[in-house]
Amino acid sequence: MQISIINGSPKLGKSTSDLILEYLTPLISDNNAIEIYNISKTEMNEQRLAYIENSGVIIFAFPLYIDSIPSHLLEFLIQLEKRQFSDKNTMVYCIVNNGFYEGRQNYIAIEQMKIWCASNHLKWGQGVGVGAGEMLPFLKDIPLGHGPNKNLGNALKRLSLNILSAQSGETLFISPNWPRFLWKIESSQFVWYPRAKTNGLKRSRLYDQVNNAVSNK
Ligand SMILES: Cc1cc2nc3c(=O)[nH]c(=O)nc-3n(C[C@H](O)[C@H](O)[C@H](O)COP(=O)(O)O)c2cc1C
């Protein structure tokens, strides 16, 4: 089976979408021809677009941006709409990861992907919403399916079985097996504050919107 995997993370360095795909790819490699395209890093030329068009399975992995699909991926989806998908049974699966703890936050983006499939006469396979996406790189030495990676391992296993048998499945929403309150503290200290600093943003500026909303009441 010909499989196209599209990584829709705009990050130029390593992304959580990369990591999730590193976990998923060995689970579906079984005699399949797999091409992985990172649309931020790879030029999507005619040959690559044709490969996607002729695939039996298309898998999207991307981050949630403002409760939705990142704009550069949206642009790519619009570009794909011009293609004639030769296999009317092409199945589409997607994995959306987000910053907040709850994987359910990805509900709208997954619904948007379902609508995109329907309007392109592609078959919807399954969506997986992964919460606390920024935690996953910290857990990469823990085997999938164990400890804090237990839920992710189970979800990717179910997804891979559906992909291999070209079946549809219910949408899965997961969070790491790790206390929410701890991640709230850790993510501020180890992810969001350092990242704000790297981008020249003072910590106090992160609260501007909240402070403005309170003072406008
Ligand atoms: C512009 C922007 C918008 C975002 N919007 C949301 C959001 O609405 N909800 C959320 O939970 N996370 C949001 N995030 C966080 C990302 O979804 C999160 O960091 C994700 O793990 C990044 O995945 P990646 O490494 O695969 O790119 C946003 C991040 C950025 C940069």
Secondary-structure map:
Layout lengths: L1 E6 L8 H13 L4 E6 L7 H8 L3 E7 L7 H10 L10 E7 L9 H13 L3 E8 L19 H15 L7 E3 L5 H19 L9 H8 L2
Parallel strand pairs: 1-2, 1-3, 3-4, 4-5, 5-6
Bound molecules: flavin mononucleotide.
Flavin mononucleotide binds next to helix 1.
Task: Describe the model.
Strand 4, helix 4 (107-119) and strand 5 form a beta-alpha-beta unit. This protein has helices at residues 16-28, 46-53, 71-80, 107-119, 150-164, 180-198, 208-215, and strands spanning 2-7, 33-38, 57-63, 91-97, 123-130, 172-174. It has 7 helices and 6 strands; from the N terminus they run E-H-E-H-E-H-E-H-E-H-E-H-H. The chain has 2 domains: 2-178, Flavodoxin domain (Rossmann fold, 3-Layer(aba) Sandwich); 180-217, no CATH class. The longest helix has 19 residues, at 180-198. The model has no long low-confidence stretch (mean pLDDT 94). The chain binds flavin mononucleotide (FMN).
Judged by helices, strands and strand pairing, the structural class is alpha/beta
Top-tier CATH class of the largest domain: Alpha Beta
CATH third-tier fold name of the largest domain: Rossmann fold
Q: Quickly give the CATH architecture of the largest domain.
A: 3-Layer(aba) Sandwich
- Supply Rg: 18 Å
Uncertain spans, ≥5 residues at pLDDT below 50? none
The proportion of strand residues reads 15-25%
Bound molecules: flavin mononucleotide
Name the CATH superfamily assignment of the largest domain.
Answer: Flavodoxin domain
The main sheet comes to: 6 strands, parallel
One letter per element, helices H and strands E, the order comes to EHEHEHEHEHEHH
Tally of domains = 2
Number of helices: 7
Percent range for helical residues? 25-40%
Give me the count of strands. Answer: 6
Terminal CA distance reads 58 Å
Overall pLDDT metric? 94
Strands in their spatial order, largest beta sheet:
2-1-3-4-5-6
What general form does the structure show?
A: globular
